[in-house]
Amino acid sequence: MQIIRWILLILLILQIIALPFWPRTARLIFRKRPKRKIWNLLIDGSSYSVLLTLLLLPMLTISLKIARADVGKTLESREFVIQYVEPPMWDIRGQIHVHCYLSHDSDGTLEEITEAAKKNGVRWIILTDHIGQLPQPTSGVGSPTSSVGAGNYPDEVNGVLLIYGCERNNDEGTSVFRASLKDPKETLHLHGHVESFSASADSKWFYQKEDTDPIIHWDALEMVNFHANILDNKLGALGSLIFYPESLYNNITGLIPKNFDYWQKLAKREGRPIPIFGAPDAHQNQKYLGVQADPYELTLGLISTHIWLKNGQELNQKSIFEAIKSGHTYIAFDYLGDPTGFKFYAEKMNDDRCMTGEAMLTPKYLSVWAPGSNTGVTTKFYCNNILVGEISDSMTYMPNPMPGFWRVELWRNGHPWIISGQILVI
Fold first, then answer.
1. Residue 181 structural domain
2. Half-sphere CA count of 14, side-chain side, radius 13 A
């Protein structure tokens, strides 16, 4: 497959080089021919686009298959587990911002989504479909043709917990995620698509469309969005797809700096840590020449949101919402390595600890630990969104941290791997 791709690439480059000479050559060849439409077409510039497309499309298709296969190697060993970490907490991988057939731009079934989730070790999912309320299905469990009553959508499929929510856009371009639609008493309001929002200094931690409408306070920020990353680095993604498809997903799973600036502004304004989450924005709706570019099995393995639950706490909608609202989360690009068991907390000498989403007065140090080999791992300490320390180790600490909002980023082989929530040092 690689050989075919390189042959097509060489032909494409030669075709591009030949473009300036093509009109002249065509006129010399066809100057004695009658001026028929076919000859005019050959001389016309649009014909060059056709020739380039004939070479480009199959090459990009092959490149996409290579990129998917390369990422798939790192995902095939993912285990469906819940891991115990210290202090006594459970690290549980989940997904926020996933679309199924309830949205106008997806045909994915609950069975497809949960089967893909299970293969990637995802234990819970918050669906965020483009709907105002759960529609009445007409036939089969979890499919558009099922015959269950409104509000009777399954809470669990294939061992994966499902929470039903919706996505709407406000007037400023920001997506408002609301869950759960099945239980209005237990609500979660998420600030989606931060990259499209005007991250101004006077931004507020609430949303109110009209003065007469109730005030909606955000519960968490969507700091990383898979689709937004693609749009933010279109040229890099295209270049990777053409010349080095193995690096494609490395180029589209990065960080957008303005999102982190906005995060810090809100935290400073509120005077407390602001909870965060990452999102695949999964639709499974991009298909080219028979190749599915964004299958759930792939997108649900690229990025995830991990929550920490207290030992003995049951995994359910209530506990998930509490963990998110409390800031007991971190974001991980799972395809770079399984981060389950990551820890970041502040501690005093008397074993008094606090984790992300919490505050502590004059801790003695900040502690970081991530599982697996330290090879290629760099830990970056940020205070008030300013890089203040960088250590080539996944097991490290920061002594006597100064007051401010602290967070860490763990990078693996030059790419972001883990993004922690904030700890406020007072």
1. 82-337
2. 7
